[in-house]
Amino acid sequence: MPLPADYHMHTPLCRHAIGEPTELAAQAVRAGLDEIGFSDHNPMPEDDFDNWRMRVAQLDEYVAKVEAARRAWPALTIKLALEVDYLPGREDWIRNLADRYPWDYFIGSVHYVSENWDIDNPHKLSEWKSRDPFEVWTAYFQRLTLAAESGLFEIIGHADLCKKFCFYPREDCTPLFTQFLQAASRSGVAIELNTAGLRKECKEIYPSPAFLQLAARHKVPITFGSDAHAPAEVGMNFAEAVQLARACGYTQCCRFAARRREMLSI
Ligand SMILES: [Zn+2]
Ligand SMILES: [Zn+2]
Known about the structure:
The protein is an alpha/beta fold. It has helices at 21-30, 59-72, 91-98, 125-129, 133-149, 174-187, 209-217, 238-247; strands at 35-41, 77-85, 105-109, 112-114, 117-118, 155-156, 190-194, 222-225, 252-257, 260-265. Helix 5 packs parallel to helix 6 (174-187). It is globular. Bound molecules: zinc ion (2 copies). One zinc ion binds at residues 10, 14, 16, 41, 229.
């Protein structure tokens, strides 16, 4: 069985990744993958929204870089996508982006729990230290649930990103997971097994085994992503991720083309 597609990869346009798409594609071939997808951080209408995404005027360049990788590696299937920040009230901007290019899928991610706090930003750890983790997790999953309900995304990114720095609530978070998974199940959106969590303080794939077991029970489909910000990270820990998915009850994952889903065995 070939490894599943790596659907979460970044490019230098987002200002915190290295390796051009052709180089990431080369690594994918070396790692034995037959399909990948580029999903760099989406631009915002305001180019100074933050400092970790491409600017609007760079979208053409982004698409051209992905097309160049396709030409350089014709035996590898390369999908065109974005990782899109979900912030309530900005849905029209996401629709605007969706109309611009022939995207294969959008990953909807929550990094911001308010207009100015991106909870995974290591420069903003002081915010975590001044808050109750359960309040942050609750705000995070409320937004993630809205993202799942929005119908704007094929995949929800790193669904328990709030564990990144190990600020775990004492309270039981199962109701938060369940609320999100019910919404995901109703709208047919997939979640990803994101292996970047293994490279962070939490040292665990996003989402956790308990979360994934619950997701399998709610019949929420899955994809796989390394969240590569460098060529060496492409396809990283995928064998472990597949093993985890199977252990949690999954026998299939999905792929996307032109925003349509196809199921494959894992
Ligand atoms: Zn990033
Ligand atoms: Zn992300």
